[in-house]
Amino acid sequence: MLFTLLRKEFVLEFRQRYAISGIVLYVFSMVFVVYAASIKVQPQVWNVLFWLIILFASINAVVKSFVQESGARQLYYYQLADPAMLLLAKIIYNTLLLLVLSLLAFGAYSVVAGNPVKDIGLFALILLLGSLGFSIAFTFIASIAAKANNSATLMAILSFPVIMPILLTLVRLSAIALRLIQDTSYQRDIVNLLAIDAILITLTFVLFPFVWRD
Amino acid sequence: MWWKALSVVLIVYSLIAGTLVPLKPGITYVSPQTARSGQQLVLQLHGYNSFYAQSPANDIRVWLQYDSAQALTGQQIRVLNDTTLEASFLIPTELPRPTASVMLNAIIDHPADGVSLLPSAIEIVKDSIASQANWSGSNISGLHVKKDFSFPYRNVIYESIRNTYFHVPMWFVLMFLFIASAWNSVQFLRFSNPAQAAALDEQKGRSLLDFDRKAAAYAEAGLLFGILGLITGMLWAHYAWGAAWSNDIKQLMTAVALLIYLAYFILRSSFDEPEKGARLAAVYNIFAFASLIPLLYIVPRMFASLHPGATGNPAFGSEDLDNTMRMVFYPAIIGWSLFGFWLAQLRYRYQRLLDKATGLD
Questions:
Q1: Which residue of A lies nearest to B279 if distances are taken between CA atoms?
Q2: Does pLDDT of B312 surpass 50?
Q3: Chain A partners within 8 Å of B280 (Cβ)
Q4: Residues A162, B260: C-beta atoms closer than 8 Å
């Protein structure tokens, strides 16, 4: 069932190609805005700007999760499948989408602003963990925001404070990968990040049954 | 209601005791602040809240302490006035460590005032020929302890130590109120299926939306205490850290925590049907509360902070409070907590009456 739902997400994305092209273009535009605004980027600034790009791109990529299909069709899915499975499929799909987006952003950003990353293995792990954390929090918030009328604004104000612990941990870990901070015990931060993810995903599954039905 | 009266009594007590009880005597500074090894030094010690003239000069003892085993004893002690004391020291030619200079703590033992200490009061600069040798053992013993109701004297924060009874309780109340708010959101969701809601309606006019109103009222009161905590903290930071806002990690995280609840109110009010808005707001409240825990207790551990008990400790440690302070601090926490719940209850009852009057319920 999970596999079918996941496949549905991919097929949907493939058929509505304008959505994914839009997001990719959005990422490239932001990268070039950064380039145009500051030609020479210091590693400290590189780190912060990179995560800002990822943050905004992620919100814009995930916000459509629950609004791209009509309410009637959503209801139809909920009759066919377990809502929790539907949410899980969306979280997995969004994780993969965000991972691809952050790799694209990293590639484009490295070309225009240079690549100060010293520990590429750690940085790749951080991108994966970041995509996972963003996907869990944003997908769930998108499901709440989709019920309201001004969902784009609501999505931003609801998700920024919630994402803050994840974002700060990511920026710190990424500063370690850039060798801006010396910290040999960064494994603890990774465990913290996974713990936050675990709390959020558990709550997501407990609370989603109250969100989807109208 | 007894607990409302208790909250007023405890708050008034903490206000009076917190502002009027004096500080213990302390040393503000010594002069001169540097000396050379081998020098015959005449040192003036300036006290705060002290009554040096109350005891004869030969009962007062003064030391310059290097560590727990090594100290210099002051000779020819003269009391100039209640807050100024003069003592002479013969600084040895050798320093205990092969460093260019050492910092010494000043200690005064006074029969009436008790013992007071100024850390790193004076710097001893090594003379070029001096070598390294231990100083003769210290004779710091038989210290007097001042037994009265007064708050400890701490350098840097001085009188602003009283803010402990106003700044810190705000965060306790905030946490209690947000827990109460999250609990009411959980209750709302638990009773929100039709069968449960119908059973609830039969019980003496309680309705499902009451849980939502309670959750919102507790969150509003919590937000108020958060703002008060932020203001008292900024006031304190202005004097102790030199700037009201210094982007300390806890200041930032608190600001973010308050944003969460502002977003909660916006979400709650952005639906036309009250039941739907209440349900989604309850879901967000629980989700946001869960992310508040890492925000306030995990993230601050990863960054340096100016707060006492900084890295690795979310709040201050037990050594920051003494028994006198506990006698005001704990009543202040209880008093403000009860007051916070009282406030939230009034908000809730007002909102329920308003909704009944406008026919929303």
A1: A210
A2: no
A3: 144, 147-148, 211
A4: yes
pLDDT tens for A30-74 read: 888 877 776 677 888 888 889 988 998 899 888 888 877 777 887
Tokens of B186: 């959980």
* Residue range B252-279, pLDDT digits in tens: 888 888 898 999 999 988 888 888 889 9
Tally of structural domains, chain B? 2
Q: Which of B26, B47, B48, B307 is nearest to B154 (CA)?
A: B26
Cα dihedral sign, B94-B99-B103-B107: negative
**Are residues B267 and A158, on separate chains, in Cβ contact within 8 Å?**
yes
Q: Which residues in A lie closer than 8 A to residue B288 (C-beta atoms)? A: 161-162
Query: Who's near B221: CB < 8 A, 6+ residues apart?
Result: B177, B340, B341, B343, B344, B347
Looking at the fold, whether B112 and B247 belong to one and the same domain comes out as no
CA distance B25 to B49: 5
What CATH number does the domain containing B112 carry? Answer: 2.60.40.10
Domain extent at residue B66 = 26-125
Using an 8 Å Cβ cutoff, are B290 and A164 in contact? no
Domain count, chain A: 1
| CB-closest option in B262, B280, B294 to A211 | B280
* DSSP type of residue A65: G
> Cβ of A192 and B302 within 8 Å?
yes
**How do B34-36 and B114-125 pair as beta strands?**
parallel
- ipTM attached to this prediction: 0.87
Closest CB to A158: pick one of B263, B271, B303. Answer: B263
Same domain, B58 and B174: no
**Beta carbons of A203 and B284 less than 8 Å apart:** no
Number of A:B CB contacts under 8 A? 91
Tell me the three-class secondary structure of chain B, residue by residue.
CHHHHHHHHHHHHHHHHHHHCCECCEEEEEECCEEECCCEEEEEEEEECCCHHHCCHHHCEEEEEEECCEEEECEEEEEEECCEEEEEEECCCCECCCCCEEEEEEEEEECCCEEEEEEEEEEEECCCCCCECCCCECCCCCCCCCCCCCECCCCCCHHHHHHHHHHHHHHHHHHHHHHHHHHHHHHHHHCCCHHHHHHHHHCCCCCHHHHHHHHHHHHHHHHHHHHHHHHHHHHHHHHHCCCCCCCCHHHHHHHHHHHHHHHHHHHHCCCCCHHHHHHHHHHHHHHHHHHHHHHHHHHHHHCCCCCCCCCCCCCCCHHHCCHHHHHHHHHHHHHHHHHHHHHHHHHHHHHHHHHHHCCCC
Helix (H, G, I), strand (E, B) or coil at A175: helix
**Angstrom distance (rounded) from CA B52 to CA B46:** 10
